[in-house]
Amino acid sequence: DDGDSGDSGSSSSGDLTIAVITHGDGGSFWSVAKKGAEDAADKMGVTLDYQESNNDPEKQAQLIEAAVTADVDGIAVSVPNPDAIQGALQQATDAGIPIVTLNSGSTVWQDLGAITHVGQDEKIAGEGAGEQLAANGGTKMLCVIHEQNNTGLQDRCAGAAETFGGEVENFQVTGTEDPSKTANEIAAKLQADTGIDSVLALNPDIAMAALEAKDTAGSDATIATFDLSGDVVSAIEDGDILFAVDQQQYLQGYLPVVFLTLFNENANTVGGGQPVLTGPGFVTKDNAAQVADLAEAGTR
Amino acid sequence: MTTTTAGQGAPMLEMDHVSKHFGSVIALRDVSLHVDAGTVTCVLGDNGAGKSTLIKALSGVHLPTEGTLKVEGEQVSFGSPRDALAKGIATVYQDLATVPLMSVWRNFFLGSEPTKGVGPLRRIDVVKAKEVAREELARMGIDIRDVDQPVGTLSGGERQAVAIARAVYFGAKVLILDEPTSALGVKQSGVVLRYVVQAKERGVAVIFITHNPHHAYMVGDHFFLLNRGKMMENWTRDEVSLDALVRAMAGGAELEALAHELEELGGDVKHAAREQIDHLQAGPS
Amino acid sequence: MTTTTAGQGAPMLEMDHVSKHFGSVIALRDVSLHVDAGTVTCVLGDNGAGKSTLIKALSGVHLPTEGTLKVEGEQVSFGSPRDALAKGIATVYQDLATVPLMSVWRNFFLGSEPTKGVGPLRRIDVVKAKEVAREELARMGIDIRDVDQPVGTLSGGERQAVAIARAVYFGAKVLILDEPTSALGVKQSGVVLRYVVQAKERGVAVIFITHNPHHAYMVGDHFFLLNRGKMMENWTRDEVSLDALVRAMAGGAELEALAHELEELGGDVKHAAREQIDHLQAGPS
Amino acid sequence: MSTTTAPAAPPAADERLAKTGAVTRIFRRPEFGALLGALGVFILFAVVDQTGKFASLEGAARWTDSAATIGIVAVAVALLMIGGEFDLSAGVMVGSSGLVLGLLVTEMGLAVWPAILLTFVFAAAVGALNGWLVVKTKLPSFIVTLAMFFSLQGINLGVTKAITGTVRVDDIDEGAGFASAEKVFAAQFWDPYQFRVAVVWWVVLTVVATWVLTRARFGNWITAVGGDANAARNTGVPVSRTKILLFMYTAMSAALVGVITSLRLQSVQAGQGVGSEFTFIIAAVVGGCLLTGGYGSAIGASIGASIIGMAFIGIAFAGWNTDWTYLFLGLILFMAVMVNTLISRRVAGGRR
Amino acid sequence: MSTTTAPAAPPAADERLAKTGAVTRIFRRPEFGALLGALGVFILFAVVDQTGKFASLEGAARWTDSAATIGIVAVAVALLMIGGEFDLSAGVMVGSSGLVLGLLVTEMGLAVWPAILLTFVFAAAVGALNGWLVVKTKLPSFIVTLAMFFSLQGINLGVTKAITGTVRVDDIDEGAGFASAEKVFAAQFWDPYQFRVAVVWWVVLTVVATWVLTRARFGNWITAVGGDANAARNTGVPVSRTKILLFMYTAMSAALVGVITSLRLQSVQAGQGVGSEFTFIIAAVVGGCLLTGGYGSAIGASIGASIIGMAFIGIAFAGWNTDWTYLFLGLILFMAVMVNTLISRRVAGGRR
Ligand SMILES: Nc1ncnc2c1ncn2[C@@H]1O[C@H](COP(=O)(O)OP(=O)(O)OP(=O)(O)O)[C@@H](O)[C@H]1O
Ligand SMILES: Nc1ncnc2c1ncn2[C@@H]1O[C@H](COP(=O)(O)OP(=O)(O)OP(=O)(O)O)[C@@H](O)[C@H]1O
Ligand SMILES: [Mg+2]
Ligand SMILES: [Mg+2]
Known about the structure:
- Chains B, C: InterPro entries: AAA+_ATPase (IPR003593), ABC_carbohydrate_import_ATPase (IPR050107), ABC_transporter-like_ATP-bd (IPR003439), ABC_transporter-like_CS (IPR017871), P-loop_NTPase (IPR027417).
- Chains B, C: It comes from Nocardioides taihuensis.
- The complex is a heteropentamer, with one copy of chain A, two copies of chain B and two copies of chain D.
- Chain A is of the alpha/beta class.
- Chain A has ten helices and twelve strands.
- By secondary structure, chain B is α/β, with parallel strands linked by helices.
- Chain B is about 40% helix and about 25% strand.
- The site of one magnesium ion has 4 residues of chain C, from helix 1.
C-alpha cells in the first residue's frame, strides 16, 4: 500500500496528526463522538484534526482531500455514502495514509481500504429500537425525523420499521432549531391520530419535545429515543421515557484515533478483519442511574 | 402650418376617446387628439391635468382603460414602450426614465445599443457609444466631465439633457417631449426649442408639453388644452393669440385675484408683483 | 435692500471658502456667500454649475470638503439635515426628497409630525395633519384628490407642490428653494413667487435658485452667479439690470451664435426663432 | 382612508374619482392579500382534515402555538424590513438568548427573573451593535447581520460546550422563581384546549407594532427610512437612530421567544433558532412586506406566521405523508400568493 | 474608465476634475472590496496554516475546488441579483438536476450524455417557469422561487423515496458513456496538484458572464432592469425576456453543478444542495452585488466564492477547533468587509 508520495513519510512518531472527518453536524450525537476523539488524542499525545461535513457528501470528500494534501498520518471517516467518498479515500490510500471507518460503513470498509471499522450502523441501531418498542406492546409507531437531509435518521427509521412489526409512520418535524414548534407539531399529530402508541425520537431534544407534546395532546404513547442527555436520563429514571438507544459514539471517536496511532507507531491492526462494534446499547430505568453523571458530562 | 407635410392623409398619431383610470383615480376621460407629421403639437394644462398620463398612453407605458390609438391610420395596441419605439415614437418622460446607477453613455443608448461583431461575439461598440453620447450632450451645451459617470450623480439639468439628447437621437417619426426644459438653463432651453423646430422641419411629428406659454407659442402649430383629465380646447396656431394662451393656462379669474392680493403687499414688493403679473399676462414682445 | 432688516449685524447664513469634492469630481471650489435675514438671495448658474451642491452644503446634506458655515455669526457643522432644520433652515430640494410609497400627508409632515396624547400614547394627530396638508396644497392652487394617495402616483407638479408647501410651512428663519417652480404651472409658479415675497416680508432669509432670470429679477435682492463650481459674480439688485442678468445666465456670445443659426432656418421658423431670441435677451416689459 | 365622498374639504364629489366601496379600499391594504391566502389555507386544511379537529378550538390551539413563536419575531422583522434592513441574526438570537438565560440560571446560580432581565439587556446590546455597524460602515445589513449570525452560532456552540461539556443547557427549572416566570412566558390557558400564553404575547405585540407603524411618529420614520433613506434624511428624520432602534427591537423580540422556549422546555440546545431567520422573513414577505423596504404591515407578518403555522399543523391533521411536506408547503405558498394576486388585482383595478 | 486627461473630446484638462490615478479608479470597481477581502483572508490562512500547504498549489487545488461549485452558480445568481431578482430555488436545483440525471441513468437506463442533455432541458424549463411566474404575477421573486424551492425539495425526497426506496440514487457510474462525461465534468488535471475540472468551468463562466455584463447588450439590459425596471421598460428594454433568461441561466448553472457533483460522487442524495442558495447569495453580496439590484459584478461573485472556499479549507488546514468554526466564519466575514470599507472608502474619497 505504499503510494507515490514517500517524501515526508508517516514515520516521525510523537508528532502524529490524525484527521477525523465525519458527516456530523455538531449536534448531541456527534459532539460526544468528537469528545471521544479529543480525549483519545490527548491520551495518545497526537494532534487531532476533527472536521464535520454536516451531511454534505461533497464537502466530506473535499475535507478528506484536504487532509490528504495536509499529509496527515491517519484518517478516520464515517461512511454514510460510500460512493461519494471512495474517490477521495483512494487518494488517501494512494498516499499511504491509513484509514479507519467509523459509525456507518460496516459493510464497505474493506472495499474502501480501511484497516478496520469502529461503530454501529444506524440501521442496526434502529432495528434494536424497533424490537424493544414492539416488545413493549406497541402497534403503531411514529418515527420523528428532525432533519430531512440526514440519511442516518432515515436509516434509523427504516431499521425500526423492519423489526417493529406494526405500522410505522415517518414524521417530518421542524427540528431542534425550534423545539417548541416541533413539540407542537408532534402534539397535533398525536391529537390527529390517537392510534399512535409509540413515539421514537432520534435526538434527546426531540425526545423532550415529544414528552411535552404527549402531555399537551393528552396521549399515553410510549416514548423512546436515540442518544442521551441529562434530561433524557432523568426522564428514563422517572419512567417517562422507556429507553434511549446508546451507540456509545464516544467510542466511535475514541477508538479510531487510538487504532490509527497504534498503526503508525507500532503497525498494529485491530479486529482481525471484523468490525469493532460499539452498540447498540440501551439505557433503561435499570441502568439509567449509572450513566446519569456521564451524560451530564457529555461522554455518554 | 396645420396641414401635414409628410402624411398621406391620415394623421401620424391619433387618439380616439381614450380614458385612463388608476384604480379609483380617473386621470383621463374621453380624450381625443391627433398629431400630424411635420407639425408641433402642444399639450397644455394645469398641474395634474393629465398631460403626462396622455403621453404615456401614446408611448406604450399605459394601456388605455378605454379608447383606441392609431399610428398612420392603422390601429395599434402597444404592449410596451418597446413597441412604440419600434414604430419610431421616441419619448422624453417627465421623470426622465434614466437608471441612476448606470453611466451616462449606457443610459443614452439603453435599449438601442450600437453593436459590432457578429454571432455570439456581438457586443456594444463602446468607443462609438461614448463618442456619440459626449457629442450629442455637447451639442446641447452640456459639457459632461466623464461619460462614465453614473447618471445618478449628474445635476438635475444634466440628467434631463441626457434624456432629451437620447430621444432626439432616436426619434424617427414622432418625438414626444414632456416638460423637457423644466430643469434646463436658458441656453440649453434654447437648444431644445431649436431641436423641436429642426425635427418638425424634417417631417417629424412633435408633441411638446410645457408650462411655459411663451415656449409653446414660439414653436407650436396646434394646441390642446387639458383640464382635470378632460380635453377642453383644440386650437390651431391662427385661432389663438399668445395672450389667450397665457390666460387659458393660468386661469384668468384666479390670476386677477392674485394680482390684487400682491398689490396689497407694501413697498418694493408692489413693484415686483406688478412686474410678475405683467409677465404672466403679457409675455415678451 | 441689501441691508438686513432683522439681523443683528451678522448675516443669517454665511459660507466661507467652501469646497466640495465627490471623489475626483470637484463640484464647488472656494465658494463664499452670505445671506441676510429679510432678503431674497438668488443663486444663478448654468446646468451643473454647482447650485444644488451649494444648497446641500448649506442644509446639512453634504459636509463641505473644505471651508466653514456660520449661522447668525456662529460657526456650525451640520451632521445631518435634521441639525439644519433645528436651526430653522427648511429646504426644497431639486429632487424633492419625498418618499414615493408614502401618502401625501405623511410626506408633508415627515420628520416633524404633529402629535397628540402623552407618554407612550403620543401619536400623530392624523386628522390635523391631513387637514393642514390639504389646506396648504389648496393654497398653492393644487386640488389634491385624496391626501392618502401615495406621493409616487402624483403628477410631477403636484409632487413639487408638496415639497414646497412643506418647506414654507416649516421654514422658520431660512427658506431654501432649489428650482421650486420647474414643474409648476403658471398659476402655481405665481403662488410660489408670492410665498417668497411673503417670507421675506416676515424677515426670513430666502435662497432662491432658478433658471428663469425673470423670476429671479422679480423677487431677488442679491444675486450670486456660479460657473463651473466657482463663484463668478456677486451683485446687489441695484448693481445689475435684468438684461445683464439674462446675458450672464445665457452666456452672451453663444446666444448670438444660436440666434444666427436659427436665422438660417427658413419660413415660419425664422419668426419663431426671432421671438425666442428676443425673449431670451430681453424678457417681458 | 377617505377616498370616497367624505364631508372633507372639497365641497362636492370630485369628478376625477370613480366611486369606490369600502370593500375595494380594504382590498388595497398590504396585508389583505395575505389574509385571503390565510383564509384559503384554512379552508383547504379544514376540508382535507382527517380528524375533524383542525377547524376546532383544539386545532386552533395547536396552530396558533406554532404561529406565535414565529409571529413574535416576524412582526419585528417586518418592521425592520419596512425600515429597509434585514436581520439574519434574528434566528440564532433566539438560541443565544435562551443559552444566556440558561447559563445564568444553571451555572451562575441567578434567579430566573433577574436572568431574564439580563437576557433582554444582552439582546438589546447585540441589536444595537448590529444597528451601529450597519449605520457606521454603510455595508448592507445582509452582510453585517450574517457575520453576526455566524459569530453567535459559533459562540453558542463553543461557549456551551466549554462550560457544560455538552451541546445543551439543562435543568433551567431548578432556578429560583421559575414557577412564576413560567406562568408569564410559557403557561397554558383555557383548559380543555390548552392555548399557549405565547399566543397572547404575539397578539399584543402585533397590535402594538401595528399601532406604532400607523399611528406613532416612529412608525412614520420607519416607513420613510425604508422607502427612501436619502429623502427621509433630508426631511429631518433621524435615520440612524430609527434603524438602530429597529435592530434592537428585533433582537429583543427574538430574545422573548428564546425566553419563552427555554422556560417551556426547561432546556436549551446550542443550535436552537438557526435557520428560523428565514422563516421570519418569509412570514413578513408573505404578509405583504417588500424586500426593498418602505412598504408592508405588522399585522401582515402575523398573518404570514399564521399561514406557516397552519400549514405545518394542518399537514399533521391531514395525515399526509411527510416525505412530501415541502411539496405541500410549496404548493400552499403558491396558492396563498396566487389567491392574493388574482383576486386582489381584479378588485383593485388595473396597474398599467 | 477615461476619467483622467485622456486624449478625448474636451480639449484641455477639465478643471472640475481632481487628478486620479489608475489605482483610485480600480478601487471604485464593485468587486475591488471583495478582492481586498479575499487577499486578507488568504494572508490570514497562509499565516495560521499548520501544514505549510495552504499557500501552495496543492492548497490552491483544494480551495478552488470548493470555490468552483459555489462560484459557478454564484456568478449566475449575481447576474440575476443585478437584474433585481432572487432565486431561492438555485440550491435545491443542484440536487434536483443531480437526481434527474441519476434517475434517468439508473432507473430509465439512459446513456449518460443524453441524460445530461435532458437534465439541462429540465433545468431550463424550471428556470423559465420561475421567470414566467415572476413576470406574470408580479409577485416578489423571493416568494415565487421560495415556493419553487419547497416544491422541488418535496419532490426530490418524495420521488426518490418512491422510486428507490431510499433517499439516495447510487451507481451512476454504471451508465453508458460515464467515463467520457466524467472527463468533461468531474476529472482532475495538473497531476501532482490534482485540480478539479470544475475550476475550469468556473473560470470560463466567470469570464463569459463578465464579458456579457460589461460588453454585451444583454448585460446592459440586466443592469438596467435591476437598476430601475420602469425606466428600463420605458426606454425599450425587453424587461420580461431579460428576467426570464436570467432565471433560466441561473437554473442551468445550478444544473451544471448538479451534473458535476453527481458524476464526481457517482451518487446523489435527495437533500443535496438545500441550503446552498444562501451561500450563492452570500458570495454575490460579498462580491459587491447590491441586494436591491442594478449594481454588482460577476467576477466579484467569484471572488466571494473564493473567500468562502478559502475559509472552508483554511479552517481545516489551520486545525482550529470546529466548535468555533462559525465564530471564525463570522469574524472572517466581518474582516473581509471591514477591509473593504475602510481601505476602499479612504482611497475613493468621501461620500457625503
Ligand atoms: N399611477 C397613478 N395612480 C394614481 N393616480 C395617478 C397615477 N398617475 C397619475 N395619477 C393622477 O392622475 C393625475 C394626472 O397626472 P399627470 O401626471 O398626467 O398630470 P400632468 O398633467 O402631467 O401634471 P404635471 O404638469 O404636474 O406634470 C394626477 O392628479 C395624478 O395624481
Ligand atoms: N454625488 C456626486 N458625485 C459625483 N458628481 C456629482 C455628485 N453630485 C453632483 N455632482 C456633479 O457636480 C456638478 C454640480 O452639480 P449640481 O447638482 O450642484 O449642479 P446644479 O448647478 O444644481 O445644476 P442644475 O441646474 O442642472 O440643477 C455636476 O456636474 C454633477 O455632475
Ligand atoms: Mg406631467
Ligand atoms: Mg441643481
